[in-house]
Amino acid sequence: MVQTTAAVICGEKDVQLRTFELPTISPDELLVKNISNSICLSTYKAALLGTKHKRVPENIAEVPVMTGHEYAGIIVEVGENLKDKFTAGDSFVLQPAMGLPSGYSAGYSYETFGGNATYSIIPKIAIDLGCVLPYKGEYFADASLAEPMSCIIGAYHASYHTTPYIYEHQMGIKEGGSLALLACAGPMGIGAIDYAINGPVKPKIIVVTDIEQARLDRAESLIPVSTAQDKGIALHYVNTAKVDSPVEYLKSLNDGQGYDDVMVYAAVAQVLEQADELLGNDGCLNFFAGPTDKNFKVPFNFYNVHYESTHIVGTSGGSTGDMIESLDLSSDYLINPSFMITHVGGLQAAPHTILNQLEIPGGKKLIYPHIDLPLTAIDDFMSLADQDPFFAELDAILKANNYVWNVDAEKALLEFYDVSLAV
C-alpha cells in the first residue's frame, strides 16, 4: 500500500490535510504521483458549500473528498487490465470534465481521486471516459493549466452567431469581429486575452475591462498592445471605474457600434447589465463566471433578443479536445498559460489557499504536493534568500522571464526539494 497526504473537504468551510493509506488499485485503475495542481475558484465554491454543492457527496464528514482537479503527474502503477494502454513512468494530465449525470468529478466527489495530494487513484470511470491524457512535455505547470485554459477555449467555441432564416448556429466568436472582455484582467482573464490574440480565430478589435488598475497594468505588461497590433488586432485596456459612461465609451472604441461577442469574467450584476447593453446585432453574450448564488438573476433586454437577435450562452469546463488544443498551443509557444500563475506553494498551503482565494491577491496559485513551501508570491522569492541562497537563484530565473513562472523555475524548485520524477 502507498501512503498519501491530501487536502480534503470535510464539511462547509472545512478543508484539512489528511494522511492515510491508499487501497490497492483494482485491475481497472491507475495509481499516480501528483506533481502539480493549480487551484481553481470552483474548489473554493465546493469547500464553501460542502454537501450543498451538487458535486459534493452527502457523507463527507465520514468520508472526506480529495480536492484538486487541475493536475498532472506520473503514473506509478497500472492495473492489470490497462497495461496495453498505460505504462508506469509515463507522464499524464487529467481531463476532469466527466460529464456524469451526478455531476461527480475529480476534486469534488471522491475519497482518493484528486490533485491536492501526494498520490491518488484514478478510477475506472474516468479512464473509460478518456480522462487520462498522455503528456509529452517536461513542464508540469503547463499541463495543470491546460484544464483552466480548456475552460477558456471551450467558452470561445461555445459562443455562436446566426444568419437570418438559416437555422444553423455558426459556432465560435466572429472572425474579424469585435470582442469585449469584461472584468477580464484576473488570472483566467489573462488566459482569455492570450487566446483571443493567439488562437485560431482573430477579432479585429478587443477591449479588456477591469476596475483594478494594477491588474490591468499587469495584463498589459504580459500581453502588450503592440503584440496584438503585430497580428492586426486593435487591443484596448480600459479601467471602467475611471470612465463616466462605460458603455458609451466602449462603443466609441468600436466606431460607435455594439460588439459581436461579449464575455463576462465576473458574476457581478452591473457587469452583466453592461454586457447586455454592449451587444450589437446578432451579438453573443458569454457568461463565463460561475456564481455561487443559485438564484442569481440579472435583467436582460428581450426587445433586442427579438429584433436584434442578441443571445446568451454559458459554459462550465472544457472538453478533451479543448485541453488538447491548449496543450498544442502552449507546446508551440503560441500561448503561455503560466501568465496566470502568481503564487507557488507546497501541499501544506492548499487548505488555507482554497478557503481564502478571494482574499489572497493575484492570480492562479500552483501547488506542488511533494515540496515543503508556504504559499509564496512569485515576486517574493527573494525575501526567502536569508533562509536559503537557493531562493536568490530562483528569483534570478524569474527576473529573467518578467517574473512569469516557467519550466526552468519549476525544474529548479523540484530539484531543490528532491522531488523525483522517476517511478
From TrEMBL:
InterPro entries: ADH-like_C, ADH-like_N, GroES-like_sf, NAD(P)-bd_dom_sf, Zn_alcohol_dh. Residues 27-123 form the Alcohol dehydrogenase-like N-terminal domain. SUPFAM superfamilies: GroES-like, NAD(P)-binding Rossmann-fold domains. One of its GO terms (molecular function) is oxidoreductase activity. Pfam families: ADH_N, ADH_zinc_N. Residues 188-330 form the Alcohol dehydrogenase-like C-terminal domain. Keywords: Oxidoreductase. PANTHER family: L-THREONINE 3-DEHYDROGENASE (PTHR43401). This is L-sorbose 1-phosphate reductase. It comes from Photobacterium gaetbulicola.
